Amino acid sequence: MGWWFVRARFMRRRRPLQSVVFVTSGCDATCRHCTLCTRQEKCFKPFDAIAADLDYCYAQGARLLDIEGVYLTEWHDGSHTAADIFSLAREKGFYSVSTMVKAHDYGAWQQMKADADVVWVSVRGIDDCRCLETMTGASLYMVVDADNRGEIAPVMEFVREHEGIRQIAFNMHTPFAGTEEKALSESQRGEVIRSLIDYKRRGYRIMNSVAGLKNMLTLRFKRRCWICNFIYCDGRRSPQCIDDMASGMCEKCGFSMAGEMSAVFAMKPDTILAGLGIRL
């Protein structure tokens, strides 16, 4: 990965380091940007199609892989289960494989015994944490919006009290069409991000770096989102997190990895250390 950084930072070679591959579709949300919501019924991508996706990502240069899907623990194709997708990623040569599961699916995920290096467990607030009392070796993920911003403090204390939780990562809500009412106001966003910076400086286990959070506070940073490409369940391939770059969402971005990727290129030490902490 060192050579990737040298080529990207100093030789301006634009090749993804990470790929996100969605293997299921169907969700009860209505986010216009998300392929998971383009069809309400569950749809599982075939194993052979997933194998082709992984080959494509590897050929593009990606060595970090994130396998996603709301119904990931239910995915199957003939005799294949979701655990076989992770084994396949190993066979293809990816250095690190990660995924995300909902809090209430974490028990099913553990039973799968899939070979993932990094597991993010999505929570909306402290109620979702109740079923994670015995969690070990995984991390939490929380999207902060106008409805759950008051949940940050109790969730942070839950993480502090449970040593089995590696860390927690935060995104802000991105107000795609149909979800604008969940957006944080400018003052609320500033309050949330400054509180996360304070928690971070007090030693709470937050994945986001201070430099990355500061980027998200102002949104005045150069976008490096090509570092991660996306392949959706319907077969679409995108060189960044959304297809519609003209939608204006970049100016309202809540995806904290955008700030982190830019901070990496600015060679911010805390961001580099945070990134290494995830994968090592």
Order of helices and strands: HEEEHEEEHEHEHEHEHHEEHH
Average the pLDDT over all residues and give the rounded result. Answer: 89
Counting structural domains, the number is 1
With strands numbered from the N-terminus, the spatial order across the biggest sheet is: 10-9-8-7-4-1-11-12
Euclidean distance between termini CA atoms? 12 Å
Tell me the overall shape.
globular
The chain-level structural class is: alpha/beta
Number-wise, the strands total: 12
CATH class: Alpha Beta
The CATH topology turns out to be TIM Barrel
| Poorly predicted spans | none
Helix content: 25-40%
Number of helices: 10
Our estimate of the beta-strand percent is: 15-25%
Describe the main β-sheet briefly: 8 strands, mixed
Radius of gyration: 18 Å
Which features characterize this protein?
two-stranded antiparallel sheet, single chain, globular, 280 residues, alpha/beta, TIM Barrel, 36% helix
Give a short synopsis of this structure.
Helices cover 36% and strands 18% of the residues. It has 280 residues and is of the alpha/beta class. It is globular.
Notes on the protein architecture:
- It is a single chain.
- The protein is α/β, with parallel strands linked by helices and 280 residues long.
- It has a single domain, classed as TIM Barrel, CATH 3.20.20.
- 36% of the residues lie in helices and 18% in strands.
- The chain has 10 helices and 12 strands.
- The chain has helices at residues 2-10, 47-60, 82-92, 106-112, 126-129, 152-161, 186-201, 210-218, 256-265, 269-279, and strands at residues 18-22, 24-25, 43-44, 64-68, 76-77, 80-81, 96-102, 118-122, 138-144, 165-172, 228-231, 237-238.
- The strands form 3 sheets. An 8-stranded mixed sheet has the order 10-9-8-7-4-1-11-12, with helices on one face. A two-stranded antiparallel sheet has the order 2-3.
- The two termini are 12 Å apart.
